[in-house]
Amino acid sequence: MEEEEIEKAVLAYLNKKGFKQTELALQEEQSKSSSNTQTDPGVARRIISFSESENIPARYMEGYSKLRSWTYNSLDLYKHELLRVLYPVFIHSFLDLVAKGHVQEARTFFSRFREDHEMMHARDLLKLDDILTPSHLHEMEFAHSLRQSKVNIKICEYSKELLMQYLQKMEPFTVLGVINEHINIQVSPGQPSSISDDTDAVTLIGGSQDTAKQINQKEIRWGKKLAEGGKQGNTSRKLKKDKVVGATSKTVRSETHSISVASRVMTEVSLPTIPTEVEHAVLEDLRVRVQMGSLALPSVSFYTFINTHNGLNCSSISQDGSLVAGGFSDSSLKVWNMSKIGQQVDASYVQPENDSNPNGNLLGSENGKRSYTLFQGHAGPVYSATFSPLGDFILSSSSDSTVRLWSTKLNANLVCYKGHNYPVWDVQFSPSGHYFASSSHDRTARIWSMDRISPLRIMAGHLSDVDCVQWHTNCNYIATGSSDKTVRLWDVQSGECVRIFIGHRSMVLSLAMSPDGRYMASGDEDGTIMMWDLSSGRCVTPLMGHTSCVWTLAFSCEGTLLASGSADCTVKLWDVTTSVRGPKTDESKTGGANRLRSLKTLPTKSTPVYSLQFSRRNLLFAAGVLSK
């Protein structure tokens, strides 16, 4: 009788998992074998117990409760690593209960243990709180991605041995099933990692970790763009000396200065010729540029929007700070000329006040007239705006799924770019103009050129909305940040993903590239900023300090400082050279000591920071809206 129960349990499991061929092969083997075969008693007991636990919801509560008690009573040296297992076991036990129809038991389980994870995963728990029926697991994007993905957990060898010993001794079959199916344990060499390294110790990945590792092995050219024009004659000779860094190559840096000399890389896309007068202006800016550092912080010019009536969605500042744009919920885009603020305004420039409820004003209005240019054309809220490098064009993206190109000289709409299927969250000009990139709710990023109405490339691969996009310094790559908590780097020529950066615990809202093209900074909804090494795909250091969403990031022109703007109404300045340029030491010894140093926090009275922009002379411009 026991043998029949074992056979039924094994066949039921294979059928449930969809292993049809294995199920048929086992049935065929059973028909050929003699009926006198006996299964080992220990194995038989485990199979039957596992089969029974599948249908008893109380086993999930019991298994998690025992695992929780064991981890909290572990040795302090290994406790923080073992505690990493609790969160994925908790969420997948809850989701398993819901999937099997035990909704009431799932709610009881969730309510009893959610406090354990409120501090680190509050936003995820709010989303899980809305799951009430098995159908929600397929309808809700977050729940569906959890079920389809695995969670990576980094622990040391001895911590893994302790966990395996516990599982073998206690035999909590529900917990064991969750760990086998949904958790990927990565063993790190040496001693247990420090608690401060927990930011990237537990990560959600779509598909297997091997796929991410394989992608991060691809070779990328992270250096700065080669000069245009007459200096291209020595390109072939120069390229032979350039260093092309891949993830597996060894980098040797002989740094005698605090700022490393970046390699030069040929831009693989054709770019427009820069006018001579513009080159002269750039050279003049470079001549008078102030060198930034920990002892020489930038001057900050902050533009504050007032009386927006909660209508301002985004802002953008031209590279020289002379133009400021705001995108509004009423589908309008408004551009202010800073040189005309506070001066007698020319009647041809002024937009008349044709409504009783104006939805935007920058400090400085005269006689009931406003010195802004009004651009109308979108059919929905404007979510992003970006100026061209010379300030003669501006792009805007909207919930109407389009991107529009406007001329700041003609004050007119030139082109409407259609291609996305859903709202477009972000749009960014390339560093050289002409090309631009957009990101959308449709989970794609697209590359465009100003002279074509269709996208040149479509980058697909994110598991959720692509919330922000940023060009690499040499124009050969774009980076995208997503609600799936990852950042990806894409090759502009091929459209392939060449890096996946995993470590954020909430949606990624902002990106910035270092001027030398070697590093990238990303900011998320929780206020965490992460500095990434593009060559290896690894996080150099997390930056902790903001208490709310990081909406904007900007590197100084020589890359020694990073500025961050947040919804917590502050601008923070970080010393980049302290960490990423310093001598490398053994990670296992230093732990979390290798952190970027916060140089200064600049608080506003009550103004969340929407955008930051360093001018070529290293003056920092910022913009935000006064919120009472």
Alpha plus pi helix count? 16
What class would the helix/strand composition place it in? alpha+beta
Low confidence ranges: 227-261, 344-367, 582-594
Separation of the first and last Cα atoms = 74 Å
- Helix share bin: 25-40%
Short description:
The chain has 628 residues and is an alpha+beta fold.
Structure description:
There is one protein chain. The protein is α+β, with helices and mostly antiparallel strands and 628 residues long. It has 16 helices and 33 strands. The chain has a 4-stranded mixed sheet with strand order 10-6-33-32, with no helix packed on it. The protein has a 4-stranded antiparallel sheet with strand order 7-8-9-11, with no helix packed on it. The protein has a 4-stranded antiparallel sheet with strand order 12-13-14-15, with no helix packed on it. A hairpin with a 3-residue loop joins strand 8 (323-328) and strand 9. Helix 6 (86-99) packs across helix 12 (173-182). It is elongated. The relative contact order is 0.09. The model is unreliable at 227-261, 344-367 and 582-594 (pLDDT under 50).
